[in-house]
């Protein structure tokens, strides 16, 4: 039997994404966010509060990078979700992580995160109190240590983790359990 829980943002897993931007003065700002992801083959969507420093930076610079956090940097990733750039402008420096300027967009690339999407703003949407940024993926950077022998990203090497919206936990992504567009193929024959 199922129990009604009301209106809740209960999907699992939720990504742990790091949005990196430059402030007006060139300061690196990184924000941890879960309410976003791929929305087309070359587009990402980010749903963030418009009062975040990151939102202000995106509006002014027209670009951002989006990285997957890994377990080795869980504390720093969580810190980026706790601290606000509006009140703590040196939060990136406090993290001890390192950033370089993207070669493709006006945004920083955090060197420690294993995969980074370099994005330029394609569209900004405002509705029902939401601020949504649609970004065009200009390039993807991947640390060589997460690539397989064919040069593709191996998810098992990312050491990524996801967010649990139910109880606010983080969970390491586990082993492969099936093959997309194949595991259910036998049911097509019925």
Automatic annotation (TrEMBL):
Its cofactor is FMN. Keywords: Flavoprotein. Coiled coil: none annotated. The keyword Flavoprotein applies. InterPro entries: Flavin_Rdtase-like_dom, Flavoredoxin, Split_barrel_FMN-bd. Residues 12-154 form the Flavin reductase like domain. One of its GO terms (molecular function) is oxidoreductase activity, acting on the CH-NH group of donors, NAD or NADP as acceptor. Signal peptide: none annotated. The keyword Phosphoprotein does not apply. Pfam families: Flavin_Reduct. PANTHER family: FLAVOREDOXIN (PTHR43567:SF1), FLAVOREDOXIN-RELATED-RELATED (PTHR43567). Belongs to the flavoredoxin family. This is Flavin reductase family protein. It comes from Candidatus Egerieicola pullicola. The lineage of its organism: Bacteria, Bacillati, Bacillota, Clostridia, Eubacteriales.
